[in-house]
Design a protein that fits this description.
Layout lengths: L17 H5 L3 E2 L2 E4 L6 E3 L1 H14 L8 H15 L4 E9 L13 E8 L9 H4 L1 E5 L20 H13 L4 E5 L5 E4 L3 E6 L2 E4 L2 H4 L5 H12 L4 E3 L4 H5 L3 E6 L3 E8 L2 E2 L7 H14 L10 E3 L3
Helix pairs in contact: 2-3
This protein binds pyridoxal-5'-phosphate (PLP).
Length: 299
Amino acid sequence: MDGQLVDWAEAKIHVLTHSLHYGTAVFEGIRAYPTDNGPAIFRLSEHVTRLLNSAKLLSMDSPYTQGELEEAIILTVAESGLESGYIRPILYLGYGEMGLNPLPCKVNAAVAMWPWGAYLGDAAMESGISVMVSSWVRQDPRTLPTAAKATGMYINSSLAKVEALRAGYDEALLLNMEGYISEGTGENIFIVKDGVLITPPSSAVGALQGITADSVRILATEMGYEIEEQLIRRADVYLADEAFLTGTAAEIVPIRELDNRRIGSEVPGKITKQLRQAYDACCRGSYGIHEDWITLAKH
Ligand SMILES: Cc1ncc(COP(=O)(O)O)c(C=O)c1O
């Protein structure tokens, strides 16, 4: 926290922390994977770049540079003693000045790490997940800068997630204001139709520009698949041959059914499985290429 290693139980903040009241913190979700050489942090620099971009979008001046934040994350992973897990860097407006104007507030930084298994359940890769289209619509780029990963924006995801879970589904997909598919509550979406991968253009539909989605695009291109960025309707997902979600927490997870309509003929679909295997190998530095995607945090 702010340059100091703090014991888990002591990692506390004041109840009048500005970001707690106004949802103005920006954060990242990063995973570290086990390797023979210690934990490997996946696409560290891309995550820190997005964190600083999120801060910029909220007019928040980070007191730490890209390099300092990367060092802090490597140190936290190394000191945690964990072989793998989820890493949460956060920049937040701290205690001191209340009131809506964020500009006088001090920016604090923290990095935490904890063990976290399969976000959508251990069976998700083999059996796929059931998804509903939420009645909540994704926040519009005219309402908020949707490219920012800011805490307040997750009220939208949280409402959709609770709605889905209470209705007996694993996850929700949100439409944008025009009725096109935007993204999951914490994941981007891809569909496969006639061997072509299709994903919505994130800025147009108000989705976060996913780093997992970027990795998937690169891997799929290398495998020789065609990828199209285009607007998709829920019916396009119903009629897809395969559909899957991508995210740091969720990784790559097949969608078995959307709104109780089964997607494709097998779960996981062939291309989903192939991409997941490649992604898993990349995360552990064993794919043969893309070793620059991982940063080792030796113990
Ligand atoms: C709303 C939302 N969309 C998409 C993603 C996927 O992004 P990434 O692959 O960078 O984790 C996330 C996770 O960070 C998210 O919270």
